[in-house]
Amino acid sequence: MPLLLNIDTATEHASVCLSNESGVLLLKESQDQKNHGAFLQPAIQQIVLETGIELQAVDAISVTEGPGSYTGLRVGLASAKGLCFALQKPLIAINTLKVMALAAINQAPYSSSTLFCPMIDARRMEVFTAIYDIHLNLMEAPNAKILDSFSFEEIISQQPMVFSGSGSLKTQALFNHSNAIFSSVQHTAAHLSVLANQAFEAANFVDLAYFEPFYLKAFYSPVAKK
């Protein structure tokens, strides 16, 4: 089983952990979304000090690839790439929504028919979302969706669906159905480590030079007219 450094700064909750065959060795977390950049490197240094494991010993580094906060994704991927380059280690990238879905799946013993819909708030009534089954098979690809009372109506009329993540707070007032389940579970780099381990065993690495964050939606920045 590999020794992995796992980095997640994609959403408002940032975390980093070191994991091996025993699970998570040490996890550091931050709720301050505006300071993910200031949190990450000191947290990694603290993990090295507290575990006594040098970064050179890791087999690979994993990172949440997106979707998520534009700044957060850049912070996480830039740090992961820099470390991989310096240490000559492979890079693993995992979709943020898949990590979030795993956190929800692990929260309770749901029935096999339950679907999982992680959501990241994309402002107003828009979310970044996807749908997974209980085995993490992708049922609806990641997309940017504008929510209304008819969103997911056909699905939740037939089977249970767990909504989680920051974007799910918008759904509670919209989806008044017994099959709509709302979870407050928070994903962390610990959940990322599970998927990263699977990716490592499958040698599913990304190109260090050319890999970019999965923004899902183009960044828009208004430019003042001269």
Account of the 3D structure:
This protein has 226 residues and is of the alpha/beta class. The chain folds into two domains: 4-95 and 187-201, Nucleotidyltransferase, domain 5 (2-Layer Sandwich), CATH 3.30.420.40; 108-182, Nucleotidyltransferase, domain 5, CATH 3.30.420.40. It is 27% helix and 28% strand. It has a five-stranded mixed beta sheet with strand order 3-2-1-4-5, with helices on both faces.
Task: Report the radius of gyration as a whole number of Å.
Answer: 18 Å
Low-confidence stretches: none
Q: Summarize the amount of helix as a percent range.
A: 25-40%
CATH topology description of the largest domain: Nucleotidyltransferase, domain 5
Terminal CA distance: 58 Å
Largest sheet: number of strands, sense, barrel closure: 5 strands, mixed
Please identify, by name, the CATH architecture of the largest domain: 2-Layer Sandwich
**How many beta-strand elements?**
10
Mean pLDDT: 94
Number of domains: 2
Enumerate how many helices there are, as a single number.
5
User: In one word, what is the shape?
Assistant: globular
What is the CATH H-level superfamily of the largest domain? ATPase, nucleotide binding domain
Order of helices and strands: EEEHEHEHEEEHEEH
Main sheet strand line-up? 3-2-1-4-5
Q: How much of the sequence is in beta strands?
A: 25-35%
Instruction: Output the CATH class name of the largest domain.
Output: Alpha Beta
Content-based structural category: alpha/beta
